[in-house]
Amino acid sequence: MSKGTSVAIERRRAEKYGRAPRLTRRARRTFTAVVVHGVLLLGAVFLMIPLAWMFSTSLKSLGAVFSIPPQWVPDPPHWENYVEVFRVVPFGRYVYNTAFITVLDVVGKVLSCSLVAFSFARLRWRGRDAMFVLMLATMMLPPQVTLIPQFALYRELGWIDTYLPLVLPNWFGGPFLTFLLRQFFMTIPVELDDAARIDGASFFDIYSRVILPLSRPALAAVAIFMFNSSWNDFLGPLIYLHSQSNYTLALGLRSFQNQDYTAWHLLMAASLVSMIPVLAVFFFAQKYFIQGIVFTGIKG
Predict the structure, then answer these.
(1) Neighbour count for residue 299 (Cβ, 10 Å)
(2) How confident is the model at residue 70 (pLDDT cuts 50, 70, 90)?
(3) Exposed/middle/buried for 93, CB within 10 Å: 0-12, 13-18, 19+?
(4) pTM over cut 0.70
C-alpha cells in the first residue's frame, strides 16, 4: 500500500467516526523539529542581548550611555570610539603583551601535556596508574590554596613583575588537558606503535611521527582551551604584574575606570576588541574542537 493511499484511508476513517486525522510520522518529526529549533533560536536571541547592548554602547557618546529611554541604535554612531581606545591608553601594548603570553602558554601546554599524556597512554612503566590517579587528584585542590606559596616562591626567585610566573608553569603540563589527550591517545590502535618499532622508530619518533599527526583534533581542542584561558586570565596578571607597560588586556580594561567616572563607551569598545581573537579562533577551529571533545570520551 502506498503512502498516499494510507493517508487517504486515515482521512476517510476520521470523517466517518468524527475524529481528527492523526499526524503522519513525517509531520510529527517536522513539527518537533520546528518547536526545538524555535526554542533554540529564542534562547540564542536571549543570550545575544548583552553582546548587542555592548556593541550599541560602544557606538554612543558618553552622555548617551544612560539616556532614558535606552537607545539601541545610536544616532549618529560614533565609530571613532574604537580609534579613541588606542589613544586614551596604550591599548596596542596590552594586546601585544597578551598575545605574547598566550602564544607561549599555548605552545608550552600543548607540548608538555602531549608528552605526559603519551607516557600515560602508550608507555609501560612501574607505578604508571598510581601516578595517573595522583595527577587527577590534584584537580580537587583549589588553586587558591597554592596561590600564596607560589607567590612567595616567585618573589624569592625575583620573578615578580615579569611574565615568567604566567608562562613557565604551563610548560610543565596540567591534569585536565593531560587527561583529555591521554583519553584520545588510547583510541589510536597500538598496532601502529608496534609497526613503527619494527621499522626502528624510537619512542620519541612514535610520539612525533605517529601519535601527534593522528591527534590533531585533540591538540586543537587543547590549544583552544589554553588560548581562551590565557587570553582572558585576570587573576594571574593582577597578582604578578605591577608595571603598566606589562599589563595584559584583562588589566588594561581597568584603565578606563577611575575615581571620577567610567568611560563606558570606550570600555565597551575595548571589550569588544579584546573578544575578537577568541571568537575568531573558536570560529575557524570549532570543527577540530568538537571532534577532539567527542573522541576523547570514546575509550577510557
Answers:
(1) 11
(2) confident
(3) middle
(4) yes
**Nearest of 128, 120, 115, 121 to residue 185 by alpha carbon:** 121
pLDDT at 295: 56
Q: pLDDT digits over 110-160, tens only?
A: 999 999 999 998 888 898 889 999 998 988 888 888 889 999 999 999 999
Cell of 269: 569598545
**pLDDT digits 0-9 by tens, 283-292:** 777 776 666 5
3-state secondary structure the chain: CCHHHHHHHHHHHHHHHCCCCCCCHHHHHHHHHHHHHHHHHHHHHHHHHHHHHHHHHHCCCHHHCCCCCCCCCCCCCCCCHHHHHHHHCCHHHHHHHHHHHHHHHHHHHHHHHHHHHHHHHHCCCCCHHHHHHHHHHHHHCCHHHHHHHHHHHHHHCCCCCCCHHHHHHHHCCCHHHHHHHHHHHCCCCCHHHHHHHHCCCCHHHHHHHHHHHHCHHHHHHHHHHHHHHHHCCCHHHHHHCCCHHHCCHHHHHHHHECCCCECHHHHHHHHHHHHHHHHHHHHHHHHHHHHHHHHCCCCC
**What is the Cα–Cα distance from 249 to 274, expressed in whole angstroms?**
7
Length of the chain in terms of residues written: 300
Phi and psi at residue 77, to the nearest 5°:
-75, 135
Query: Which of 100, 102, 97, 94 lies closest to 231, judged by CA?
Result: 102
Contact 156, 150 (CB under 8 A): no
Quote the cell numbers at residue 280: 575568531
User: Is pLDDT at 226 greater than 60 in this prediction?
Assistant: yes
Q: What is the pLDDT of residues 19-30, one digit of tens each?
A: 555 667 777 788
**Upper half-sphere CA count for residue 122 (Cβ side, 13 Å):** 29
